[in-house]
Amino acid sequence: SIEPMVYPLWAFLLLTVPLDLLLSWGGAAVMHEIGHILAQRSFTKSVLRIRVGMTGAVIMGEDLGTARNIICVLAGPALGISPVIFARSLPKLALCALLLSVYNILPLYPLDGGRILRMIGEKCGAAEKTVCCIEWGAVLFFTFWAVRYRSVLPMMPVIPYLREKLLAKRRNSGYNSSTIEMR
Fold first, then answer.
1. pTM exceeds 0.85
2. CB neighbours of residue 148 within 10 Å
3. pLDDT tens digits for 48-73?
4. In whole angstroms, how large is the CA radius of gyration of the chain?
């Protein structure tokens, strides 16, 4: 499914971003999501739902246990970085793939790195405070660079994290243990 607000965003991007860069970014994003889907399908043969929203795509799959869930989450950045091998012939695609994969492994929930951090924290019995400290350490790191360079760009990874924190409190839930989400 596609959220209705995505269509105006796509129209805006088509009008403002060079087409070759937009296609490169879209190609990198598709490769990333295909990685999640292939890993999920290799274990269960089913993907419950795919939703494209303002903050990217969300793939819902069955909970497979911590180890397999981590593999499914890591498969996105792993396959997503594969266009880097075509760096000489497709430099924009390679750069977009690299940036998207690095961005997604940051330890901020709901990004893939944050999901893995929380899964490992739950499995190892790490206190929720430890995971929270790592996440807030990353927030402070990006805030420092935003202030240092007087730019909002370093805050881009923090926006989905803060949005998810606010929404989780509003809906009074956080993590559904019967399914897994991958972005």
1. no
2. 9
3. 888 888 778 888 888 888 899 999 99
4. 17
